[in-house]
Specification:
810 residues, mainly beta, Immunoglobulin-like, 5% helix, signal, ConA-like_dom_sf, hydrolase
């Protein structure tokens, strides 16, 4: 999914040919400082194996054609401008974007003659690019190869979303149509930082690198001619330098480390293992060297391609990895080491906790809570620890920041790994979530809190200076539930429950019942703050006590856990579980009823963040949702396979129903657009379909209501927009739906162009029997959409017909 484009209805009506807007424009020279040319020197020769290089030290007008990127892009003139400027001793090209997309520069034939003389389309193009912040979230800057004209090219692109996790992408223009053909794994790309982006074209194989790391490969046969190079943007200002073109057979020297994140630990804490991958330009293995800035803080042991980090003393240190083939190539890990844990000895009068001190019958899946006398804060340092009371064995360490969890496992031992906070402050209460599967049945534990972890607190009338064994927060867990239960009760505070958390019940079902055995989970009223994971268990029914009072709420989002996510084998995996509240994999006939799923993430600082309530992932599996609330912002529901939503609310603001569903039916439901928390003046997009087969029904809305939250503006929300990828079909159909005035008269957003670009009776964007609220007109729909006749709509007017391909009548 992608961040929302700032738009007005006038733009919506004008949007049609995408790149056609710039196809008829004549080349326009940039506004360059007139005095700068005489001060510049000729560009130096290129390095060995490099066929073309541009460092902007010489005036670029003689080598580049500058093209206006469509109407509306402007800095200084109506056509946009580029400025060559000094940054220290270096000279760079600075381009300020306007509000449209298009090709902004193409190399002249004369400047590219040395490459053209080789008569080969096999070359790489590389550049250093620094994206700059715009007033809008939108986001792309692309380095072009095999450029024929503004309508035909390949692009290696940075997708930058004003600070959120971004992506490296492959874009292309082919016969005047623009496509986002492939997104690669997300990584953090931020504004005002230099990145080295490289696109390698060899035959039909395209390979992408960023900062000397391999990103991914893609096969595309659309453009085989050598062409030239150029630059393309979509409303993203940038600075660029050191453009190179060279032999595609010469690979970059590569050095990557996993994990590459900063490391926070303490003396005596667990070591970190880092895996290193290094290769030379011919693809053979490369060596690397290690250096530590302060060996009093950090020591390392190198074992082949693995490096073990060990905390020696308190302080900060940086570990550097340096390529032997290219000493300028370096990767670093910053380590922050705290002093060793010391068990506090303070005693306190009786205090309030859950489980209570000295209690029996604690649940192994519940959160632990400690109530202080008044407000307090967490320092970000120290830890909460859980010990086995029988032998003082350390069982768990919970840090106040940079924590993760491995939820599950499923029957096939897959876990969902998530970055997530495990310590939370709620008024006067500290909530502690032990790592999953830490506490065991029939055991006695005590809890300790390091001095300095909690600041400004008083407990039972005393200043809080940590909690140790002598403080007496000790409890015994209950016996394991009986085997073979097929009805499970979940209650966050009831004594007759089988589990305190819904995930506890799901774990039981996955681990103790056969795949096909039906299981009914009764979820009592309450607020369950937890992410969820279900994999490979069929016939699970989760029934809430009441739709609005039974709430599963959790904040998860793209910048925290990037990507749609999937389970991974082994408990050691604590990443990759994706941004949804509830991840479901290969589980047939999951039934959800009478409750709310709420991903509580709110956009911050103008950043759009995908934040699903539910990702239902499978190929032939079926989902039933009745009398449900699904509430989020961007990407509320991601659906694959088959699903039926009845009498349910789906609320969101950007592409909030999306995915590769074969058939997803929303019957008698409310599709509510909420106010964009980053900009209340903007409209929205309801659906982004990525249907994989033209014969699949896709997304069908039957006798449903398209409503809006108070404050959503009139006429700016569209029924759907396309992903712009040729492999996806935009099969979306609204039948007998009631539309409010927030729906744009044009109906559908045509940038990029949908697939098919003009709907038929069975393919693309379609509508039948829509009724409108006061003031909404339905006669100005875009040409890509189709108004069905009664005969064309008939095959979609019942559940039996929508799911006829699999013979399912939910």
């Amino acid at each position: 999914m992608f961040s929302m484009i700032r738009h007005r209805f006038a733009v919506l009506l004008a949007a049609s040919g995408l790149l056609a807007a710039c196809a008829g424009n004549q080349a326009t020279a940039p506004q360059l400082p007139p005095a700068a040319a005489s001060a510049k020197v000729a560009a130096p020769g290129c390095a060995p194996g490099v066929w073309f290089c541009e460092d902007f030290e010489a005036e670029p007008n003689a080598r580049w054609d500058w093209l206006p990127p469509g109407a509306g892009a402007s800095i200084g003139t109506a056509n946009g401008t580029a400025v060559v400027e000094k940054e220290g001793r270096n000279t760079v090209l600075h381009y300020e974007a306007g509000s449209s997309k298009g090709v902004v520069a193409a190399i002249k034939d004369t400047a590219f003659a040395a490459v053209a003389a080789k008569h080969t389309a096999d070359y790489y193009v590389e550049a250093k690019i620094r994206p700059l912040s715009n007033s809008s979230n939108n986001k792309f800057v692309c380095l072009l190869g095999r450029y024929q004209d503004v309508n035909n090219w390949y692009g290696g692109c940075l997708n930058v979303q004003n600070g959120s996790n971004s992506k490296v992408e492959f874009h292309k223009a082919n016969a005047g149509k623009w496509f986002r053909a492939r997104q690669f794994n997300p990584r953090t790309i931020v504004n005002d930082k230099w990145y080295t982006l490289r696109m390698e074209m060899k035959g039909d194989n395209l390979t992408f690198y960023i900062d000397d790391d391999f990103v991914g490969s893609f096969v595309d046969a659309s453009i085989k001619a050598p062409g030239k190079i150029g630059l393309w943007l979509d409303n993203r200002s940038f600075v660029i330098d050191d453009i190179q073109v060279g032999d595609a057979n010469i690979k970059p020297v590569l050095l990557s480390i996993t994990p590459d994140t900063a490391w926070t630990s303490e003396v005596g804490g667990a070591d970190r293992e880092v895996e290193v991958s290094a290769s030379k330009s011919d693809g053979s293995p490369d060596g690397y060297t290690l250096s530590v800035s302060d060996p009093r803080v950090l020591s390392v042991v190198q074992r082949g391609n693995k490096v073990l980090l060990h905390a020696v003393g308190a302080g900060n240190a940086t570990l550097s990895f340096t390529s032997q083939a290219n000493p300028a190539l370096r990767k670093q890990i910053a380590a922050s080491i705290e002093p060793a844990f010391v068990l506090p000895t303070a005693r306190y009068a009786p205090f309030s906790s859950e489980p209570a001190a000295g209690s029996r019958g604690a649940y192994i899946d519940q959160r632990l809570s400690l109530r202080f006398d008044g407000p307090f804060s967490l320092s970000g340092k120290g830890s909460v620890r859980i010990f086995d009371a029988q032998d003082d064995r350390l069982v768990d360490v919970i840090k106040p920041r940079s924590e993760s969890n491995a939820i599950g496992p499923s029957a096939d031992q897959f876990y969902r790994g998530l970055s997530m906070p495990l310590l939370q402050v709620d008024g006067n209460t500290l909530h502690v979530r032990p790592h999953a599967n830490t506490l065991q049945y029939g055991k006695t534990y005590y809890v300790a809190i390091a001095e300095g972890t909690v600041l400004g607190a008083r407990l039972a009338g005393q200043d809080f200076v940590g909690l140790g064994k002598t403080a007496g927060w000790r409890f015994e867990t209950r016996a394991a539930p009986a085997k073979g239960l097929t009805t499970l009760r979940v209650d966050d505070d009831g004594e007759q429950a089988d589990f305190r958390s819904l995930q506890g019940a799901l774990n039981y079902a996955m681990q103790n019942l056969a795949k096909e055995t039906p299981v009914r989970i009764k979820l009592m009223n309450g607020r369950y703050e937890e992410p969820l994971y279900l994999r490979g268990k069929d016939n699970v029914s989760i029934e809430g006590e009441s739709r609005d009072q039974t709430v599963i709420a959790f904040e998860n989002y793209e910048s925290l856990n990037g990507g749609s996510g999937a389970g991974s084998p082994g408990a050691a995996s604590r990443a990759g579980g994706g941004r949804a509240l509830f991840l479901v994999e290969q589980s047939d006939l999951l039934s959800l009823s009478n409750m709310s799923l709420h991903n509580t993430h709110i956009k911050r600082n103008g950043i759009n963040n995908q934040a699903e309530t539910l990702y239902f992932n499978g190929s032939t599996q079926r989902l039933i949702a009745r009398d449900m609330n699904f509430i989020s912002r961007q990407d509320t529901l991601q659906l694959n396979a088959y699903s039926w939503f009845y009498n349910s609310l789906i609320a969101g603001d950007v592409d909030f129903i999306w995915g590769s569903a074969k058939a997803a039916l929303f019957e008698n439901s409310e599709i509510r657009t909420v106010v964009d928390s980053a900009d209340a003046t903007r409209g929205s997009y309801i659906v982004q379909a990525r249907v994989l087969s033209p014969t699949d029904k896709g997304y069908v809305f039957l006798r449903s209501r398209l409503t809006r939250e108070a404050g959503v503006p009139d006429g700016l929300t569209t029924l759907a927009r396309s992903a712009g990828v040729p492999a996806y079909f935009d099969n979306v159909l609204y039948l007998d739906c009631q539309l409010d005035a927030h729906i744009a008269p044009a109906g559908w957003w045509v940038d990029p162009i949908p697939n098919p670009d003009k709907a038929s009776a069975t393919l693309g964007w379609r509508e039948f029997g829509s009724t409108a609220s006061t003031g909404l007109k339905l006669d100005a729909r875009v040409g890509a959409a189709r108004r069905l006749s009664a005969a064309e709509a008939a095959p979609y007017l019942s559940r039996e017909q929508v799911f006829a391909a699999i013979g399912w009548v939910p």
